[in-house]
Structures
1.
Amino acid sequence: MNASAPQHEPPDPRDRPARLTVGVVGAGRVGPALAAALRLAGHRPVAVSGVSDASRRRAAELLPDVPLVPPAEVLARAELILLTVPDDALPALVEGLVGTGAVRPGQLLVHTSGRYGTAVLDPATRAGALPLALHPAMTFTGTAVDVQRLAGCSFGVTAPEELRLAAEALVIEMGGEPEWIAEQARPLYHAALALGANHLVTLVAQSMELLRAAGVAAPDRMLGPLLGAALDNALRSGDAALTGPVARGDAGTVAAHVAELRKHAPGTVAGYLAMARTTADRALAHGLLKPELAEDLLGVLADGRDGGDGRDDRDGDDGREGDRP
């Protein structure tokens, strides 16, 4: 070997033959961000479809100069197709694309639904497409910040065995970390994420509203450190991180909470009671809640469920069934 031979720089990733043309069907919050991330990895977005004004604005911001065309035209132009539509719309979209002959053999067809695996793409697979399910476990804003947030984001990945390497490569190129999910486990996987993330937003929004009603001028500033610490503790320690009046068995405090919520924010009572009972069960099972305190606490929660006087809220004057968990 000649030691004086010139050393060559590694090729630019954009020059690798594996670079793909990318199309997006459904310019919601997810699709343009993923396509923008793939562009940073050297792939080339060539077409996007979107109907609403908001979709068109997102596409213009995240994928400038990429033409807006009908879905069938997206498939005609691209080798890698991102199907980023709502879960309930996905099966009909796949059937429609196959029915019109838009799907070509050898195309990578990727959907981002958490609910579905690759079986929902079976009609396209029979037409020769290569099916992948890549679900980013992240909330999206529809802005450029989403591209940055993909760094280190876990993706729930389902793919045929022969496409696992391709799926892994795409996720890594977008900055994410692949987590393999079996086809039959997709609904449970998605339910777990919704329970943790979607419901968290509701709980935080309700908490902020109640703090404002209590006279707190900056509820976000008050909650930020508290919720950050609670999340960190929960991720590190699970149920051992439980604290507060329910885990301690402070039945009187919980009863006062329920009374105040009924007075000032009755729409929050059902959620408070449901979460309090679940918290009590977990605290009791893990030895955090003393059994002698649990009886009084669960009694308060049962009284809270029926309004505290034995009457079912569904028979009350206000007719709100939502107060019953």
2.
Amino acid sequence: MDAIILQILNGLDKGSAYALIALGLTLIFGTLGVVNFAHGALFMLGAFCAVTFSRLLQVSYTFTDASRTDFLGNPLQVEVPYLYDILGESAGAAVIDWAVPISILFAIPVMLLIGVIMERGLIKHFYKRPHADQILVTFGLAIVLQEIIKYFYGANPIPTPAPDAFIGSFDFGAMIGFDAGSIVYPYWRMVYFGFAAIIIGAVFAFLRFTTFGMVVRAGMADRETVTLLGIDIDRRFTIMFGIAAAVAGLAGVMYTPINSPNYHMGMDFLVLSFVVVVVGGMGSLPGAVLAGFLLGIIEAFASMPEVLDVLPGINQIIIYLVAIIVLLTRPRGLMGRKGVMED
């Protein structure tokens, strides 16, 4: 039982990232009808927003401390972040320590702006073009963004640690009555799951309970009628593209302590996120979230040593096998609208 619970936790962790990325993809496809192969790059850009913000906080100057010497006996050169002079040493150190969660405030406007620029500058020209054209141009954009990040940040992963308060593991087993140490899980992975749940809930609440969201949902169902009512639905869809970019970016920001940011991390998640969208149902927001967590849990159980001993490598292909089975039996996906992908 403890192994099962541990794999469920692993699945929820992986599923959180899948669900957040797939949610943004589905928002774009549902509103604009665009297959956005650059969405994984938005996840990567969010991660590098956290890296950039962390580096900005640690910009420092050097001074010579005559009271201390290095191993050669020379006065010690000390690096002091400018933030220490602005906030004080203790407060400055605390802000640097919490750089990843604080960088959310930096990433939101940056990712919204990137999303709007992408939509207005490129995507809008491909609304009425075939999906193949959309895939090619957005995939090309993803490669360009990837190479830009590689040029400025290098090819190696950049460690971006979680705050000290969340380093270590939580004895989940002891809390629910199992033996101490039987189910130990990293604090930050639990934080990531909670964060994903909040973002997903906020997106659904925004679409369901705000006037803006209701108009967007109406536009997703019948764009022409909403336009005839005098509503500028194109402007609202542009904003939704920015929101989808921000969701992907925030997923990347909070994922940095789990997987050190690197220039190809967007591509690593891109294919998996599209599989999630297809399994959940093209254009179905609940389907994207459900499929994200479902496939995350399936992948976690397929990674158990007991399973790998019987079926080596099954954890690498299990998601694709599930996708094949779903598409053969239900082409529109688990929660897709009737007629979508069924022609």
3.
Amino acid sequence: MGVRLLVLVVLSVALMVVDARFTLLKPVRSQMSLVLMQSYWITDLPQRLWQGVASQFGSRTELVAENEKLQTENLLLQGRLQKLAALTEQNVRLRELLNSSALVNEKVEVAELIGMDPNPFTHRIIINKGERDGVVLGQPVLDARGLMGQVVELMPYTSRVLLLTDTTHSIPVQVNRNGLRAIASGTGNPERLELRHVADTADVKEGDLLVSSGLGQRFPAGYPVATVKEVIHDSGQPFAIVRAVPTAALNRSRYLLLVFSDSRTPEERANDAAQAQEAEQGAEVVPGAPAAAAVQPAPVTAPPAPAPVSPPASAATNATPVKTPAPVPAPATANPPAAVPATIQERQ
């Protein structure tokens, strides 16, 4: 055994020296590498099988977990996207409302729709402003496009608004093109108004803009109400059938404007105007009074200077008697006192 071991050791050393120094063993080494490669593959096969099976099960588990995670993130992102879309629409509506409030001369306040009347035969909504916020009965309500209605019921923190399309509501309007006046009444349809008692020969055309006329002393004048959609003329009827579409988005608007106009009655406004006019006239008279007083004294002081003094003097010189009963004293009152004695002494 020792001789065999020694022989193998010497052979191995010789083969290493020959392989390092010479190229004789390269073909043998290449052939041996092919044989050893197969053996390496066979010996490594169990480990590779185990790793493949483990990776298959591990990959499936990881994929399932990753899929669930991605689905959750997708739902969250979709929810945020919907919220962003809602915020974007809200921003657009508020900007429109802000632009419309800039065109309103009266004081306005933004209100939000918080409820609707469940009765399908009435068109009423509830807003988040009430008596504590200064809202009054009959106060006009409009959105970014036009008039919506008026406040008909007050609560401390909420109010109920009657829309224009309610069957019990009417508003005086006029055609913006020619000023023709009419009454627009609700039909129960949120997309339609009707003009009542319009003459068949009236100048109303499709597409005309109807604005509030202000004659009812409830709605301010000049606000858009509706647009004429259809005009039907019937030769057998005295009145034409005029249908209009409200300019306001009655069933879509969420943010509204409460218009705080002048709450005085027509009589109070007339009395205030008359008092203001009287005060203005009195202010004009007081500064002019001294000028009038200065003008009037001039005619009073002017008459003593003119000629009435000289005729009595000439008459006194031509008179024969020295003592005259009435003429002499009368002129003496107009002349200075020193002049009368002088003439008397000369005549004497």
